[in-house]
Write a structure and sequence with these properties.
The structure holds two protein chains of two kinds.
Chain A: H1 14-48, H2 53-65, H3 68-93, H4 101-118, H5 124-153, H6 157-177, H7 208-211, H8 222-239, H9 241-251, H10 253-258, H11 263-279, H12 283-290, H13 301-311, H14 316-339, H15 345-376, H16 380-384, H17 386-393, H18 401-405
Helix pairs in contact in A: 1-15, 2-3, 2-14, 3-8, 3-11, 3-13, 3-14, 4-5, 4-6, 4-11, 4-13, 5-6, 5-11, 8-9, 8-14, 9-11, 13-14, 13-15, 14-15, 15-17
Chain B: E1 12-23, E2 26-37, E3 41-45, H1 52-59, E4 67-72, E5 75-77, H2 82-87, E6 90-93, H3 105-110, H4 121-134, H5 150-163, E7 168-172, H6 180-195, E8 199-204, H7 207-213, E9 216-221, E10 224-229, H8 236-244, E11 262-271, E12 275-283, E13 287-291, H9 298-306, E14 313-318, E15 321-322, H10 328-333, E16 336-339, H11 343-346, H12 354-359, H13 377-390, H14 407-419, E17 425-429, H15 437-452, E18 456-461, H16 464-470, E19 473-478, E20 481-486, H17 492-499
Parallel strand pairs in B: 3-8, 3-9, 6-7, 7-8, 13-18, 13-19, 16-17, 17-18
Antiparallel strand pairs in B: 1-2, 1-4, 4-5, 9-10, 11-12, 11-14, 14-15, 19-20
Classes of the chains: A mainly alpha, B alpha/beta.
């Protein structure tokens, strides 16, 4: 640094591009590797059951993406998961863990159902839009409680959202028991507790028919909305002030604050966005699939969203693929039961292994890449500077027991 | 002291022979020879990036050397891991401590070295006490580490090494995190260790300290040994020239600027028991140095001024306009720039790119984002490229994360960002902490340039050197109060009295 005269001009252009390329290739390889590891570990289990791994895996693939109908089902399963994982990722980028997507989408289904029953007078396109907005507002309202509690009282969002999830279940039960309960029970039938069936005007269109997918898959244009939303979220995080501030708050609250960013406002804003995304999670099932909100609604999409977000490394585009992969595995479960002796729980184990191996290989790949870029940043200054070096490079080095005690701090003395 | 136990005749305890270590694109150590003798403090000095830490990490088994040999106690040693190093009696204390906060001192010391499944804590505690006493270390073995001061934590790290039977102790920039008082205590402890026959490698770039503690000094520059000397044979200026490769000015020429109207006026500022009625004034073209032992309200003062901390009472005005209790954004917009004492905590977002960091704090300007909140990426990158060039931030590109920069370059980036806004007032809090000689000179020049440009500068520093080098007027801060005001040519002893609370007769 001293010889400031002989400035090394910061290289632009090619260096940047190679950095990006390296990062992209590195991540792609990490993903591939993690899949291979997961499949290999899964194979061990399969062999333990006395089955042939190749046969089992091809049964899963065959049952999911082996037919047009199968692909339809996979994408239909992926649709709500994309929204759910995005909701998780948005909070995560801001350093918060929204466990409450589950409850937020329950509330979103209630408010959307209310709109679907009450706003019948609107013309069809406006009606659908109003219902979707109502769903998002419901999710937002529920998430806002957690956000405000966090900012105003310091209550941790993990605790509050878990509790709000419980309340949301009861809220939904109350809604279909009382205000939204069907007016006219279909005569002579024993039906579940539910709302009236929504007007056809508000049912989102089945797009499966255009691709030869069975209507049973309930593939709807909500899939495109989900993909579009993922791109929007990417834009939001990378290209807007809101996302910029969110990421700054998420990785260094002190520096963000000193830069004039309001931490509290950012956190509430993120919870509102996350809640709106969560509000979209239930739309596939009430508008595309069932056409009403009943007691037998699909649960756990919020929690699965956490897994999918991890699988997609909280990257909006990665989440699209992660959700589809999740859909393949979920759909493959059916084929597994029919075609093999491997129990269906194997899929759950495989999903778990997959998440673990993705998270681990990604972490390793990230560190390797960071270390390489650090080393290549040329100026030996960067190499040996205590902070950059200790925290980044050294954490990739040898670790013994003591270092493991506080791994983020890098190397430890004996 | 300078001629401790390490007489020339005693055989070397450790010999490094032509150690070469390469990283891709960087020759970190280039055929380095080094000898460590029993009972000496051997200082290893050089700028950041000179290769001192790399060399010691090779000795500690963290990196394999590409070439060269290591001899310990006369025998060739193969050190493949820190475990091997410890077995040979070599221990290293890193700049960033590796302690488990909720654990007690004893628990931290025995961690990783527990001998039996069921721990006899009282026995362990007794042994730790004995160990500490035998070297005269002040430490309470039953206290949780989270309640310790930084200096005490460092003592625990050293004890941890001693507990494992270490004879050779490598200390990586041990004083970077210490207050002057703690440094003094550390030096006392190091002397005791040497008297007990331990040998110490002291990595540093603080020349005054090296001259005070070292028996021998080896200077590295760009991976090579440029010389070996003794404190009695050298001087600060000579050492600096060896390190940097050119003469370094320890006193920069202060530009002569007529002081203007008061820019910052603080009256009776109080905050949570940390500030107890601070009043001060800084005029345009003036650098006011706030001297004081750390922990006397410096951090709180800086934070209150930039709006990170709400004062309990008192007023802050900028150019006559009351800005008390305003948000950081408002205060920044009013023309205040801030160099935080902790670059990582309050300066940069390490996980974000240089260009993102370059705009932090100004991302709200219509120049860099639209009313709807979409960032103008091209504009921001132009800004970043300009700043990087202007302040000679050494980096391969503006696309890399701020974490890849060296400390000096991180500080340059912050300076560039903060000064780009043409502020009326610059608050510089410990602006050269952890930087090496060359980088310090750069930062000082920049601060003096602010003065030359007629801006007001509030310089808060624990380094008296720095206060003297830059200030037009000096005040001392003690327990949240201004305890004295001094001319820039006041004797250090006078200022020292103010720093310790002393008399208030000189308060203006």
């Amino acid at each position: 640094m001293a010889a400031a005269g002989s400035a090394i001009a910061p290289a632009a252009g090619s260096g940047v591009r190679s950095d990006r390329l390296e990062r992209f290739v590195g991540q792609a390889l990490a993903l591939l590797l993690s899949m291979v590891i997961a499949l290999a570990l899964g194979s061990i289990l399969i062999v333990g059951y006395g089955e042939n791994p190749i046969e089992v895996y091809s049964a899963i693939l065959d049952g999911s993406v082996g037919s047009v109908d199968g692909i339809g089902y996979v994408l239909s399963i992926a649709t709500p998961l994309i929204f759910s994982a995005l909701a998780v990722a948005v909070c995560f980028k801001g350093g918060m863990f929204n466990i409450g997507v589950e409850g937020q989408y329950f509330v979103g289904m209630v408010t959307a159902s209310w709109a679907a029953l009450e706003l019948d007078f609107l013309p069809a396109p406006l009606f659908v839009l109003a219902v979707l907005v109502a769903g998002m507002l419901g999710g937002m309202a529920w998430a806002a409680i957690a956000g405000i509690l966090k900012v105003k009282t310091g209550a941790h969002e993990v605790v509050t959202t878990i509790m709000l999830n419980g309340i949301a279940i009861s809220l939904l039960a109350w809604a279909i028991n009382f205000p939204l309960k069907f007016a006219n029970a279909p005569p002579g039938q024993n039906v579940d507790l539910r709302t009236d069936v929504f007007s056809d005007k508000v049912r989102v269109g089945d797009i499966g028919q255009y691709f030869g997918v069975t209507p049973g898959a309930h593939l709807s244009w909500l899939l495109f909305v989900a993909i579009g939303t993922a791109m929007l979220v990417w834009f939001l995080l990378r290209r807007t002030r809101v996302g910029f501030e969110a990421r700054a708050v998420g990785s260094s609250p002190g520096s963000a604050k000193a830069g004039g960013v309001s931490i509290g406002a950012t956190q509430i804003r993120l919870f509102l966005i996350s809640g709106a995304l969560a509000g979209m999670v239930g739309m596939q099932q009430i508008l595309a699939d069932k056409g009403y909100l009943g007691a037998a609604y699909i649960t756990l999409l919020g929690f699965t969203g956490i897994a999918v977000a991890f699988l997609g490394q909280n990257n909006p585009i990665g989440i699209i693929f992660a959700a589809i992969l999740w859909g393949i595995l979920s759909r493959g479960e059916v084929a597994l039961q029919i075609g093999t002796d491997v129990p269906r729980e194997f899929i759950i184990i495989l999903q778990g292994i997959l998440i673990l191996s993705v998270v681990i290989t990604y972490q390793i790949a990230k560190r390797r890449l960071a270390a390489r870029q650090l080393q290549r940043s040329g100026a030996a200054g960067a190499l040996e500077d205590s902070t950059a070096f200790d925290e980044r490079l050294e954490s990739t080095g040898s670790q013994d027991a003591e270092e493991a005690a506080r791994p983020s701090d890098g190397g430890g003395p004996g | 002291m300078n001629d401790g136990a390490g007489g020339v005749s005693s055989p070397p305890l450790v010999t490094l022979e032509r150690i070469t270590k390469r990283f891709p694109g960087v020759l970190a150590n280039d055929a380095v020879d080094l000898e460590l003798r029993t009972g000496e403090v051997h200082a290893l000095i050089g700028e950041n990036g000179a290769g001192k830490s790399t060399l010691m990490r090779v000795l500690y088994g963290m990196y394999p050397a590409d070439e060269g040999r290591i001899f310990v106690r006369g025998g060739a040693a193969k050190i493949g891991s820190p475990r091997d190093a410890i077995a040979l009696g070599i221990g290293m204390v890193h700049q960033h401590f590796v302690l488990v906060d909720p654990f007690t001192v004893t628990e931290n010391i025995i961690l990783g070295d527990e001998n039996e499944a069921v721990l006899d804590m009282s026995e362990a505690q007794r042994r730790v006490s004995e160990l500490a006493d035998s070297y005269g270390f002040q430490v309470d073995p039953g206290k949780p580490v989270e309640e310790l001061s930084v200096g005490e934590e460092q003592r625990v790290e050293i004890l941890k090494a001693l507990y494992r039977g270490v004879e050779i102790l490598i200390l990586d920039e041990p004083t970077a995190v210490l207050t002057p008082g703690e440094t003094k205590e550390l030096f006392g402890n190091l002397r005791k260790l040497c008297d007990a026959g331990k040998s110490i490698v002291f990595i540093s770039h603080k020349l005054d300290e090296v001259l005070e503690i070292a028996d021998r000094i080896t200077v590295l520059r760009r991976g090579k040994v440029v010389g070996e000397t003794r404190p009695s044979e050298t001087s600060k200026a000579k050492l600096a020239e060896m390190m940097v490769g050119r003469p370094v000015l320890f006193r920069l020429e202060k530009p002569q600027v007529a002081f203007g109207d008061p820019v910052l006026r603080v009256e009776e500022l109080t905050s949570e028991g940390k500030l107890n009625g601070v009043s001060l004034e800084v005029r345009s073209g003036e650098i006011l140095g706030v001297a004081g032992v750390e922990g006397n309200g410096q951090r709180e003062l800086a934070e209150a001024l930039i709006g990170l901390r709400q004062p309990a009472s008192g007023t802050i005005s900028l150019d006559g306009r009351d800005i008390t209790g305003r948000s950081v954004q408002d205060i920044r917009n009013a023309g205040v720039a801030y160099i935080p004492e902790d670059r990582h905590e309050q300066g940069l977002v390490l996980d974000m790119t240089l260009w993102e960091n370059a705009v932090l704090g100004r991302h709200d300007d219509r120049e860099f984002s639209s009313g709807l909140g979409v960032l103008f990426i091209r504009k921001i990158k132009e800004l970043a490229s300009r700043l990087v060039k202007l302040f000679d931030v050494r980096t391969r590109s503006i696309e890399v994360n701020a974490s890849t920069l060296s400390g000096g370059n991180q500080q340059k980036l912050i300076l560039a960002r903060e000064l780009e806004t043409d502020p009326k007032l610059l608050i510089a809090s410990q602006p050269t902490r952890g930087l090496d000689v060359g980088a310090i000179e750069f930062v000082w020049k920049q601060i003096l340039e602010q003065k030359a440009a007629g801006r007001a500068v509030l310089l808060i520093s624990a380094e008296l050197d720095e206060i003297y080098a830059l200030s037009d007027r000096i005040v001392t801060l003690y327990e949240g109060r201004i305890t004295g005001e001094f001319a820039p040519d006041a004797q250090p002893e006078e200022i020292g009295v103010g720093m310790l609370g002393g008399t208030e007769q000189e308060v203006a």
